[in-house]
Specification:
Blueprint: H1 6-22, E1 34-45, H2 64-73, E2 75-77, H3 79-82, E3 92-100, E4 105-110, E5 115-121, E6 133-136, H4 138-147, H5 149-165, H6 171-186
Keywords: Signal
C-alpha cells in the first residue's frame, strides 16, 4: 500500500488552489458579461510620476485587448500595494470604460507595469460610493513589457547618453551597458 496520507493530499490540494487563486480575476467583473470596452485615453502621462529614464509615455498605448486581458488576470491589492511612492510606477497609464450587460460601468486606469486603479459607475454614470479598488496584474506587466521592448531600449539609450553627457560614464562603457541591457531583455 502507498504511504500517501489523506492530510498530505489535502494539504497539496489546498496549496494548488491557493496558487490558482493568487492570479484569479476579480469575480465581480466576469469577462463573459462585458458588453463594450471603450479606450478613452490610450496614452496619458502623470508629469509628477513620469520617468522617461524608464519609459516614455508616448511609447505606451492601451488597447482593448490589454483591457480584456487585465480583466482576466488582475488581482486585488491594498492601497499600500498600489501606492506609487512605494512601488514601481512609470507615470504612464491608459484609461478605459468597460460596460457590462447589467449596465454597470467600470472605469480603469492601467499602467504598463500592471498597476490598475478602478472605480465603478452605475448606468447613469454616477459613481458608486466606496467602489475605488486597486489591482496588480503580473501577467499584464509581463505581456506589455515584452511588447514595449523597443521603447525600453530607447529609454536605456536616453539614460546612458545622459550619464555620458554628465561625464559619469565613458561612451564605450555606455555602449557596453546598452548591449548588456539589450541582451538580457532578449533572453527568454
Amino acid at each position: 500500500m502507498n504511504n500517501i496520507s489523506i492530510p498530505k493530499i489535502a494539504a497539496a490540494l489546498i496549496a494548488m488552489a491557493a496558487a490558482l487563486l493568487a492570479q484569479a480575476a476579480d469575480k465581480r467583473y466576469p469577462i463573459e458579461y462585458v458588453r463594450k470596452v471603450k479606450v478613452t485615453e490610450p496614452s496619458k502621462r502623470n508629469i509628477a510620476w513620469e520617468n522617461k529614464d524608464f519609459l516614455n509615455c508616448d511609447d505606451v498605448v492601451l488597447t482593448q485587448e490589454d483591457v480584456l486581458y487585465a480583466l482576466r488576470h488582475m488581482r486585488r491589492v491594498s492601497w499600500k500595494g498600489y501606492d506609487p511612492e512605494k512601488v514601481d510606477a512609470t507615470g504612464c497609464e491608459g484609461e478605459a470604460l468597460v460596460t457590462f450587460k447589467n449596465g454597470q460601468v467600470l472605469a480603469m486606469g492601467i499602467e504598463p507595469t500592471g498597476r490598475i486603479g478602478t472605480a465603478e459607475y452605475d448606468a447613469q454614470m454616477k459613481i458608486v460610493s466606496g467602489s475605488t479598488s486597486f489591482y496588480e496584474c503580473v501577467p499584464c506587466r509581463d505581456r506589455k513589457m515584452a511588447l514595449l521592448k523597443e521603447a525600453l531600449y530607447r529609454a536605456d539609450e536616453r539614460r546612458l547618453n545622459k550619464l555620458v553627457a554628465e561625464g559619469q560614464l565613458s561612451a564605450s562603457e555606455a555602449q557596453n551597458r546598452l548591449k548588456r541591457a539589450r541582451d538580457s531583455r532578449d533572453k527568454p
